[in-house]
Amino acid sequence: MNRLTSLSEEPLVTLTFGDLLDQAAISWPEKDAYIFSQTGCRVTFKGLKEQVDKLAGGLLAIGIGRGDHVSWVAGNRPKWIVIFLAVMKIGAVAAPQDLCFFEYAETTVTNTLKKAEVKVLIVEAREDGSTPFHDMFGTTEGVERGAPAVERLPHLTTLVTIGESCHRECYTLAELQQKGEDEKLQERLAELQSQLSCHDPALLQLTSGSTGLSKLVQHSTHAILNSNRYVALALHMDQRCRAVFSTLFCNVAWNVCHPIITGCTFVVPTTDAPDAEDILSAVQDERCHILYSLYVKNFYTILHHPHLQDFDLSTLKIVMTGGNMVSKALVTTSSRVLPHVTVAEPKGSPHRLSYEPPAADFHWAVPCFPPPFPAVGY
């Protein structure tokens, strides 16, 4: 990363995500960090820090700490963000899985969890208390907490559910957060946080498998943070900006932390993958400036939506799209249908996230736009 070239003279940042969250809670305590449109939930920076600190303390209470691998399967809801940042705050390694993870073959799920050496797995419990994990691997009744839950998963020692579970060996997320309120645990958390390095491993993600078997890619906080900072600088994302997060958190986990980096607000349309109407409604209802992490196929659908003109998109300034090649035809269509919107395509970001330092000839390809946001407002 020290050889990174960009359009900005800004120096690279060497903070951890725990440091950033603490600073954000001081700088913008009552400002919305995340807005979840489907449920109406609004999470302030102060409220986010409180929830994260409790869960981080709870993870420490059950013996999870620096370097341990924590995985979870959940939709786009506040708990996803809280888990992600709590894992980061104790120096553990986040390994979020696809929302459809337990729809894969058992061998795929087993191999993924083994390859990632997952120690803690967090899953959503259904209304009847059952979980997709137990559907696949069978009951683990009689297994003590802290012991391997399944013989085929030797690294897995702890199961946690979001919501009440009928399986007694599982902790619940609420139970961990209650444990984490202990004053001594919070003191221990603060001490641990002071020892962490931005160069510690922070995130594990599987590649798509398009070139063969999926591989695990490891990212440091330093890589994630500075990649996101330079994207934000290019797009002029700051505390005045509201951006629609246009895909599932698990698909682009390294992008979900923009609010604590820049002070912007992410608007999350739905708990599952949003469709064109969900995204357009979010822009209109929350007066958003950016469509962020919008897949090309979804951008195409939006541009050809039969009722596009019925939505008030006057605040929208930038569409950041990717996941496939952005054709000239798509950009031409956008300039005709949405003439006030600039299309941004981040080229090369996977390389910068995956390798530290990057190749000497690497350059950031997002153009630098004039500031699109009003001087007053959010």
UniProtKB/TrEMBL annotation:
Keywords: Lipid metabolism. Transmembrane segments: none annotated. It comes from Branchiostoma floridae. It comes from the Eukaryota. This is AMP-dependent synthetase/ligase domain-containing protein. Pfam families: AMP-binding (PF00501). GO terms for biological process: lipid metabolic process. Residues 22-340 form the AMP-dependent synthetase/ligase domain.
